Automatic annotation (TrEMBL):
Lineage: Bacteria, Bacillati, Bacillota, Clostridia, Eubacteriales
Homology family: Belongs to the class-II aminoacyl-tRNA synthetase family.
Protein name per UniProt: Histidine--tRNA ligase
Location of this chain's protein in the cell: Cytoplasm
Enzyme Commission identifier(s): 6.1.1.21
Pfam family, one: HGTP_anticodon
Reaction catalyzed: tRNA(His) + L-histidine + ATP = L-histidyl-tRNA(His) + AMP + diphosphate + H(+)
Protein residues bound to L-histidine: E82, G83, T84, R113, Q127, E131, R258, Y262, Y263
This protein's GO CC annotations: cytoplasm
Organism this protein belongs to: Ruminococcus champanellensis (strain DSM 18848 / JCM 17042 / KCTC 15320 / 18P13)
Protein's gene: hisS
Amino acid sequence: MALNLKRPNGTEDITPANIHKWYTVEQVARSVAQSYGFREIRIPTFENTELFQRSVGETTDVVQKEMYTVMAKETKFTLRPEGTAGTIRAMLQNGLLNEALPQKVFYLLSCFRHERPQAGRLREFHQFGLEMAGSAEPVADAEVISLAKAVLDTLGLKGIQLYINSIGCPTCRAEYHKALRAYFEARKDQLCDTCLSRLEKNPMRILDCKSPICGELGKDAPVILDYLCEDCKTHFEKLQGYLKAMDIDFSINPKIVRGLDYYTKTVFEFVTTDIGAQGTVCGGGRYDGLIEELGGQHQPALGFAMGIERLLLTMESQGCDFLEPNHCDLYIATMDPEGVSRAMQYANLLRQEGFWVEYDLLGRSFKSQMKYADKIGTSYLLVLGENELTTGNANLKNMKTGEQTPLLLDDSFVDSFTNVAMYGMFDGVMDEISF
Ligand code: ATP
Ligand code: MG
């Protein structure tokens, strides 16, 4: 049998040519989250399977169809399909909830779901997400939504619609479930098999079914907003007030139920129309019951997760700016062993200052070294030939302009190079114009 050495379906390689795009999103996400007081958390890639069954919910697509579960010896593990369960588990296990509240953490991680791969839908994908625990107040919902919006805005994304909904609490949901059950019971013969089994246990899941027939049936189903209890209604109204106060545009979409069972009250999505059918770049909401469900003391909480691949697709389609890719600052061309050892010394000194410096590692001819320097797009070129080494006088060539600047090969070398590279001028000139 032929070896299959290709990457698995639904996975992607992130090559060096594209890494600056990822750095852009990661850097913006980190700095915006930190500006709201969120601290980074890192959790294991796999957890005990029960953790996800318990939190994400037995009747969700994720648990029923999409988890990557492995038996390792006698223990069953699951590759995380999302970040919330593991993060809350970690917050509990490390006693974060005994510290000052609210506790606010963010993460950048990969998730694994066995879905049908398509544009914006992968089997291994990446999320920037965060969780806030300890506040039941709608001002916290507004804070988290405003953080998500700040990330999207800072990335330069435009026209991303925010949809919000409330899916109530267990009290009001009981009434709603009755109404939903009655509605779908009357249309039972048209439901898909999965939804039939959801009818008793969790009829709200039918509204999230990806089958077109169930989707069509769900269109005229009763909406949760008509069943909210006073507490949930007030919460939802206050949230809208805060969003308006912050000038954050939103629409209410009573059909948003989210694909994970742990949500209560507020749910929200940021959606773009620029990348086709998988346009939800961010999904989140409140999950007031989850911490207790996972063995902690009752503690209200909320969060969101953004799909990084979908963010990047949208940024590309909108022509957003990315951080400049790094490139070589200086290539030192050499002609003999004496040149190589001097190149090593200078390279190391400049590297300590943070410059990207290279010299020949392949025993190449001078001509091929020039070709290589050109290929890697070095900003400056320094030739260390016999003449330069003997006289101690070299020339630094600006590869963009062709301009040559004389440089002494002595103790002033690092400072002189730094000045030319950073300011395009010489020490002497700098002294004249400094204040
Ligand atoms: P969808 O409705 O698109 O299936 P979801 O409700 O399953 O999304 P969440 O579990 O809320 O998504 O995950 C949060 C975000 O992670 C999504 O909004 C999306 O941007 C991203 N995401 C989810 N699943 C995938 C996937 N298979 N591939 C790429 N990104 C994904
Ligand atoms: Mg999904």
